[in-house]
Amino acid sequence: MHWLQIGNIAVTRIIEIEEPFLVPDKMFAEATPEAIAPYRSSLEPRALCPQTGKLILPIQSYLIRTERHLALVDTCVGNHKSLAGFKRWAGRDDPTYLSALSAAGVAPEEIDFVFCTHLHLDHCGWHTELRDGRWHPTFPNARYIFAKEEYAYAERQYRERGDPVFVENVVPVMEAGRGVLVDTDYAVDDTLYLESTPGHTPGHCAVKLKSRAESGVVTGDLIHSPLQCPHPEWNFLFDDQPTLARTTRRRFLERYADTSTLILATHFPSPSVGWFRSAGDAFRYEYRDEL
Ligand SMILES: [Zn+2]
Q1: How far is the CA of 120 from the centre of ligand 1 (A)?
Q2: What are the domain boundaries of the chain?
Q3: For 271, how many CA atoms within 13 A lie in the half-sphere containing its CB?
Q4: In which residue ranges of the chain is pLDDT below 70?
Q5: Full-model pTM
Q6: Which of 15, 100, 169, 209 has the smallest number of CB atoms closer than 10 Å to its CB?
Q7: Residue by residue, what is the 3-state secondary structure of 67-80?
């Protein structure tokens, strides 16, 4: 397991799934074959599967060891979930995620904080696990951080659409007394804090890491693909607030382009991590070759 250093913080990726997901114009309406033709050679084979023509998408957590805490950002799909809206990953019974955590030398009991960029099904699945027919927090000693607006959004999705994410992944954490509802500027300390990035969902937050003069930021779903660097205006299929999602994405790219801040991209294909660089009036992604 390779860890990278951001000052005195160590970071690694815990991958649950990495597979061809959807063809580009299903993920982004504007990403027609003609529109992506100029990028095809740079995308294949890492980001675009040459056999299926689908964009490759990892589902992963970032595991973060600061000088004081162990934290996870996002917890993937999880096992035995109902996933009303996305049956492809429903009812999984797969040891990959917890095995990867163990390979990183970390037991679930050791996690101090569980962050969640937003409450979609592929970001909070391992918040809970099914034991004896009941959902329990997977990380029994952790404080699970939920942005209040995001919590209210997930609750609404449950009430209005019957989305089971809230009852399977969030309610059991609150009932066990492990959940903490926070504002979108919440900080654990000056090394680990939220950065409000609404649009994909109303309470979406990136997670910022800072140590000495170095920094990194976990994107969550404010951006899904390196294709959105040259095209920040391309919204993802499930961006909940399209205009806000576009504005937030461009501002985020502008803020970090040509800086040393390491981008810990949630859904960019492996190795996922790199830097935003400006390119004309848009951007490009420069991968860091490890991790
Ligand atoms: Zn996602």
Answers
A1: 7
A2: 4-221
A3: 16
A4: 290-291
A5: 0.96
A6: 15
A7: CCCEEEECCCCCCC
**Dist CA 147 CA 149 (whole Å):** 6
CA neighbor of 16 nearest in space, from 124, 113, 110, 106: 124
Q: Where does 92-222 show beta strands of DSSP type E?
A: 113-115, 128-131, 134-137, 143-147, 179-182, 187-189, 192-196, 205-211, 214-218
pLDDT for the residue numbered 9: 98
- On the question of a cis peptide bond just before residue 230, with omega within 30 degrees of 0, the verdict is no
* CA 36 – CA 40 distance, rounded (Å): 6
What is the distance in A from the centroid of ligand 1 to the CA of 249? 15
Assigned CATH topology for domain 4-221: Metallo-beta-lactamase; Chain A (3.60.15)
Q: Calculate how far, in angstroms, residue 270's C-alpha sits from the geometric centre of ligand 1.
A: 15
Query: What residues pack around ion ligand 1 (CB closer than 5 A)?
Result: 122, 221
In sequence order, which residues have a C-beta less than 8 Å from that of residue 206 and are 6 or more positions away?
A: 117, 194, 195, 197, 217, 218, 219, 220, 222, 252
How many whole angstroms separate alpha carbon 59 and alpha carbon 97?
Answer: 10
> What phi-psi label fits residue 178: left (phi over 0), alpha (psi between -120 and 50 degrees) or beta?
alpha
Query: Taking a C-beta distance cutoff of 8 angstroms, is the pair 24, 227 a contact?
Result: yes
- Report pLDDT for 286: 95
Q: How far is the CA of 124 from the centre of ligand 1 (A)?
A: 10
pLDDT attached to residue 85: 73
CA distance 196 to 150: 11
Residue 11 sits at the vertex; the CA angle it makes with 251 and 282, to the nearest 5 degrees, is 25
